[in-house]
Amino acid sequence: MRIAYTMIRVADIERSIAFYVDTLGMTLFRREDYPTGRFTLAFLGYGAELSGATIELTWNWDAQLYDKGTGWGHLALAVGDVVRACGRYEAKGARVVRRPGPMMHISPQRGDAEMIAFIEDPDGYRIELVQHA
Fold first, then answer.
1. For this structure, is 49 an active site residue?
2. Could you count the other beta carbons within 10 Å of the beta carbon of residue 36?
3. Catalytic member of 49, 90, 114, 128
4. Where does residue 6 rank: exposed (0-12), middle (13-18), buried (19+ CB within 10 A)?
């Protein structure tokens, strides 16, 4: 078993696909239009769809804006170098909402502070960049 995908709702499917593909370097695995339901699904990720983590973007044709509520957190991407990744994404138009640096708190289990940054996608969803060697 594995987690197949995480779904987020977007206001403009073309803009969101462009961000995840062109800015974050994901692959668009498939796009499905459902005219009778008036919605479109797009599945994106890294690697292979059937073995990796995937994001499902859902565009409801009649919706303009979504309330993310207080339960939403963020997506996270493991990157080799947070500073470089943040600069690369910012150069492609991503909004940086937390500059690269160590996490403010240290876990006793971990013993050091992770290097992180946060960017936002076009709908304001936060994406954490976590440095992994």
1. no
2. 5
3. 128
4. exposed
Vertex 94: Cα angle to 90 and 97 (nearest 5): 90
Reported pTM: 0.84
State the Cα–Cα distance between residues 54 and 35, nearest whole angstrom: 23
Question: pLDDT, tens digit, for every residue of 19-60?
Answer: 999 999 999 999 999 999 999 999 999 999 988 889 999 999
